[in-house]
Amino acid sequence: MTNGFKFKNKKAGDRILDSITKILRTLFLVGMAYVLLYPVLFLLSNAFRSPVDRLDPTVIWIPRTLTFNNFVLADQLIGFKDSILKTCTILVPSVMIQVFVCLMVAYGFARFQFKGRDVLFSFLLFTIIVPTSTIIIPLYVQFRFFDFFGIGQLLRIFNHGQPLTINILNTNWPFYLMSATGVGIRSGLYIYMARQFFKSMPKELEEAAWVDGCGTFKTFTRIMLPNVGSIVIVILLFSVVWHWNDYYLSVMFFVDNYPLSVGVTVLQDRLQLLTESMSAADIALGESSILEAACFVVILPMLVMYIFVQKYFTESISRSGIVG
Amino acid sequence: MEKNKISNKNISVQYPGKKKEKTRRSGLMERQSRNGWFFIAPWLVGFVYFFAIPLLKSLYYTFTKISITNDGLQFQFTGLQNYLTAFTVDPDFMRAITASIGSIIYQVPIIVFFSLFIAMILKQDFHGKTLMRSIFFLPVIISSGVVITILKENVFAGSAGQSVTLFQTGVITELLVKSGMGMPVVKMITTTVGAVFDLTWRSGVQILLLLSALHTIPDSMYEAARMEGATEWETFWKITFVLISPTLVMTIIYSIIDYFTDYSNKVMRMIVTYVNQGKYEYSTTISIIYFVIVLLLILFVDKVLSKRAYSAVN
């Protein structure tokens, strides 16, 4: 009983030790916060800075006059509304499909015995390691002449001996298709993560469902999915961030109507062109401020999302039925 | 589980009901395997169609010499020439690979240990917890996107081109020298600070993974341990460490992959440089050799560590 109240009956020495660790922790965290916030504060400070303040050496962090002009100019050059909308039309369906498919595949790898499973799993690891840039040229061709997973090849007879293919580049379909087949942006990693999690879930959960006559797929959707908790949120979070930030695939698969991440680099190029054709005096317009304003627009939604989401996975996930 | 099955079978041999028992068992195995294939089916399609076929096509390029002519790309079959060049002629390739493998031996433990340390701190209750957690999420947002390249050009101007040394040491060096410290001491301090910077920017994902794992440990376990009079040290090793060990394995694997495929890695930079020089076939050759080596390494680490990790099933 006395042990239970150990915290309240602390000795003086312990209390001092406690406050020392607290102070050390605070110092450490403040230092870390500085390391991580420095670039963001720098962006922020420059994004709201007018060209005059930029040239003024007495202005170090806080601009004298706050201006939204940089955001307006960046918007005129790349159109935030369209590019954010484009990003969202890729992101929302793709993320939802990706998370579901990854969980499903991970469940298959974690919970069933079948021949060749371990070999296939090492193939899965290989898909995590090999970056898309290694296979990008054949992949590009695959989407340029998309034959519906080989069905188009079989339909040759109806198409004068030519394989039936369509061009799905410059649409969102490459993203959806890759997500739906478990090879989307970092899908392999999510499968690996979810598999690790399913492996640590108690078997009693499913066995109970099977005994009750639940089919395997139903067991998965009704019993396993509602209980995975935190891992889904972590995967969802990563999936959203990596889709939001994706640059390589977007720049490969789209010809125009770019998503936001590519838009920023387009802005960079356009600003470079502009400054080349401008007189020296106009360069003081502060083209890097405009770019930094755009960067800020890229970061902000993700940060806001994280603040809302983090509460869910830190709200202790100990409600997962039986504790292992 | 496995052992149980086998012993059941052995016993059933002696009974007349043996045949029935056997078919039931093999039926279960069949159902297991059928369901397994069903669940991984989507991935199998994607793996073959969007990964294996493109990779095999890329693999074909490694046996050729590509030249750009007026009629488009011309492939000239050269056999193992590219591989021979990589292993015997190219002086940088083997050296870069061995250097990469050598440095993960100390890089990965540092990153994992640091991430665990931060995650443990962030799990504690203190004022501004949400703020700190959000701040530690910044590397995940920033370093996976285009923003990092722009930041490197603008904010961290001067240190660009090096690895992710996200720190301007100039000002601090000057300050320390002026305050009367010797140059070697100052150098030591700035490199340490620089290393911490680098570390923090590399371990965002790992911190998040471990933080979520720490939160899945029910508080009741800690309360029970406290009741039993366990010290903090014991509680860490006997409860925390055991329960997060699967995630720890994942973090280690992720760190290895991240280290090997990061574009600041020497071999990755070689691969990119060769593409830019138009030697696509040679770039693919070295990347395939490289990734196979990395895969073997990861399989080995996964095998060794997974056995030791805690699992509710086995």
Characterize this entry briefly.
The complex is a heterodimer of chains A (324) and B (314). Chain A has 324 residues and is mainly α.
List the helices and strands and how they pair.
The complex is a heterodimer of chains A (324) and B (314).
Chain A: H1 12-47, H2 51-55, H3 69-78, H4 80-111, H5 117-129, H6 132-144, H7 151-154, H8 173-180, H9 187-199, H10 204-211, H11 216-228, H12 230-245, H13 248-253, H14 260-277, H15 280-283, H16 287-314
Helix pairs in contact in A: 1-16, 3-4, 3-16, 4-8, 4-9, 4-12, 5-9, 9-12, 10-11, 12-16, 14-16
Chain B: H1 2-13, H2 18-61, E1 64-69, E2 72-77, H3 81-89, H4 91-123, H5 129-143, H6 147-154, H7 170-178, H8 183-202, H9 204-215, H10 219-227, H11 232-261, H12 266-276, H13 280-308
Antiparallel strand pairs in B: 1-2
Helix pairs in contact in B: 4-9, 4-11, 5-9, 7-8, 9-11, 11-13, 12-13
| Percent range of helical residues of chain A | over 70%
State the name of the first-level CATH class of chain A: Mainly Alpha
* Mass-distribution shape of chain B: globular
CATH class of the largest domain in chain B: Mainly Alpha
**Major sheet details of chain B:** 2 strands, antiparallel
User: What would you give as the CATH superfamily of the largest domain in chain B?
Assistant: MetI-like
- The first-to-last residue Cα distance of chain A is 27 Å
* H/E element order of chain A: HHHHHHHHHHHHHHHH
CATH topology of chain A: MetI-like fold
On the 0-100 scale, what is the average pLDDT of chain B?
Answer: 79
* Structural class determined from secondary elements of chain A: mainly alpha
Strand content of chain B: under 5%
- Overall mean confidence score, pLDDT of chain A: 82
CATH architecture of the largest domain in chain B: Orthogonal Bundle
The rounded Rg of chain A comes to 26 Å
Task: Describe the overall structure.
The complex is a heterodimer of chains A (324) and B (314). Chain A has 16 helices and no strands. With 324 residues, chain A is mostly helical. Chain A has one domain: Orthogonal Bundle (MetI-like fold). By secondary structure, chain B is mainly alpha-helical. In chain B, α12 (266-276) packs antiparallel against α13 (280-308). Chain B starts with a helix and ends in a 6-residue tail after the last helix. At the A-B interface, α1, α4, α5, α6 and α8 of A face α2, α5, α6, α8 and α9 of B.
